[in-house]
Amino acid sequence: MTLPLMGFEKAFREKARLAVLEQLPPDQLLWRSDSETEADLFGHNRRDLRKSKGSVPEDSISVPKAYIELMKAVLCHSDPERFHLLYHALWRLQAERHLLQDRSSRLISRLQNMAKSVRRDCHKMTAFVRFREISNAQTGPRAFHAWFEPDHWIIERAGPFFANRFGDMDWIIETPKGCAQLHDGALSFSKDVPQPHVPEDETGELWNTYYLNIFNPARLKVKAMQSEMPKKYWRNMPETALIPEMIATAQSRSEAMQREAATQPPFRAERLRSMMQQREELENAKANQQIAAGGLDDLKLRASGCTRCPLHCNATQTVFGEGPADAELMLVGEQPGDREDLAGRPFVGPAGQLLDRLMQEAGIDRERAYLTNAVKHFKFEPRGKRRIHKNPSKAEITHCKWWLEAERAVIRPKAIVALGGSAALALTGRGDGILKRRGTVERLPDGTPVLITFHPSAILRMTGAASQTAQQDMLSDLRSALRVLTAPASA
C-alpha cells in the first residue's frame, strides 16, 4: 500500500479505514511511501489493498481521540514501519478499547516514544531555524530563507507555527524532507529540495553581536548547552561559530566582570535602605511598647500559638521563658530539649540540672533570674523511639529572635548571659568563636551587657579533665555576671 510523500495523513486514514472495514489483518498489508522503494522484509506474505470505489464514510469506524493525536505525530516519524505499527494499533483497538492505557504493551510504548521523538524534533526546529534575507527591499517585498535538517518528516507539522509567528512576511523553509513556503499569507508545502547557496544577510553580524553580549560567562555549563543545542544543528546557525571562543574565554571574561562590578551601592539605593531601616526600627519600637504594656503573661499566651517557622509542626509545645518580670539577670540558652518539650518549661533536663548547680555555687538565685532560649520549639531528629537534639539553623534563630526581643522589652534585664553559640548569635549577631569570646562582656546597641559562656549541654558532652575545666570556667563566668549586676551604673 503506497502513500504519497507529502500529505500522507489523509491518505493513511482513508486506506487504514478501508482495510479495517475489509477485515484485513496487519500481517497481510504492506505499507510504504513514495520515498521508500525497497521491499519489506516480509513483503512476499503481504498484498497491496485494492483501490476503493468511492470515498469511505468518516464515521465508519471509531477510535479514541488519543489515537488520532498519536497517529498525527507518529506519521511524521522517519521509521518506515510507522504505517504498519499505526495500523496494527488501529486493528487491535477495534477489540481492545483501552489498549492505549496499557503501559505493558510494547506496541503502544514504541508508538509513544516515536511521537515523543517527533515532538522534540518540532521543538528543536522552532528553536533553531534561522532566517536570512534574500530580497532587495528597494526592488520588491522582503523575503527570507531558512535551511533546517530535521530527523523526521515534520515540515507540515511545524509549518503552521512559523506561519502564525511570521505571517507578515514572505519566507521559505527548506529541508531534506520537504519545503514550506509562505507567500502573500498563504502557506504551501512541496517535496524535498537540495540545500541552496544563500548569501549572508546584513543582519547576521547584528545577531551575532547580540548573542555574544547576552552570554553570561559566569553561568557557563558546556554539557547543558550541548544538551539543549546539539552539535548537529550548529552548521546552520550563524551564532554557533562564536561558541568555541566564548567557551575558551569564559574564565577571563568572568574575572573581568568581577573586577568591574560596582563596589558600593548607588546613592539612591543607600538612601532607600536607610529609610527602610529607620521605619523598621520605629515599628519595632512601637511593637515593643505594646508588648511591654501587655505584660509577660500576655506575651507567653501569644507565643503558645507561634507558627513563625516550621519547627512548631513537630514540637509538642512552645517552651517560653520562665522567671519574674522584674528579673535583673536573664540567661539565654539555645533551644528546649526533649524533657523541656514535654514539660513546657526551660532547663529542666540534665543540662538544666547542671546549670542549677553552677548558679547555686555562683550565688545566683534561679527564682530571681529569667531563663529562656533563643529558639522556643524543640528541633530534633527521630532515631527509633528517641528524639535526638539537632542544632537550629540561622534562619530559625532569626525567625524566633522576635520573641527574645519581646522578652527583653518586657523584663529590661540589667545583664544577660548568653549560653552557647545560638544564644550569642541571637543576641549579638555573631555565633562563632565562643571559646575565644567566653568570659568576655559585649554590649548590645541599647547598652545592655552580654556575658558569653558555654552552654551546659556542651559541658555534658565532655569527659574527664576537660569537663571539670569547663565547669570551673562557666562557674567563673556566672560569678562575673553577678559582679556586673552589682557594679555601679557608671561602670
Task: Give a concise summary.
With 491 residues, the chain is α/β, with parallel strands linked by helices. It has helices at residues 8-21, 65-74, 82-93, 106-128, 155-165, 203-214, 222-228, 243-248, 250-260, 267-303, 338-343, 350-362, 394-411, 421-428, 434-437, 456-460, 464-486, and strands spanning 2-3, 32-33, 132-133, 143-147, 170-175, 178-183, 186-190, 329-333, 370-373, 380-383, 386-389, 415-419, 441-443, 449-453.
What do these coordinates show?
The chain is an alpha/beta fold. The chain is 45% helix and 12% strand. The protein has helices spanning 8-21, 65-74, 82-93, 106-128, 155-165, 203-214, 222-228, 243-248, 250-260, 267-303, 338-343, 350-362, 394-411, 421-428, 434-437, 456-460, 464-486; strands at residues 2-3, 32-33, 132-133, 143-147, 170-175, 178-183, 186-190, 329-333, 370-373, 380-383, 386-389, 415-419, 441-443, 449-453.
Approximate strand percentage? 5-15%
Query: How many β-strands, per DSSP?
Result: 14
How would you state the average pLDDT, rounded? Answer: 84
| Helix-and-strand structural type | alpha/beta
Q: N- to C-terminal separation?
A: 104 Å
| Main sheet makeup | 5 strands, mixed
What is the share of helical residues?
Answer: 40-55%
Shape: elongated
Strand adjacency order, main sheet: 3-4-5-6-7
Tally of alpha and pi helices: 17
**Radius of gyration based on Cα positions:** 39 Å
Instruction: Pick out the low-confidence regions.
Output: 37-47, 50-56
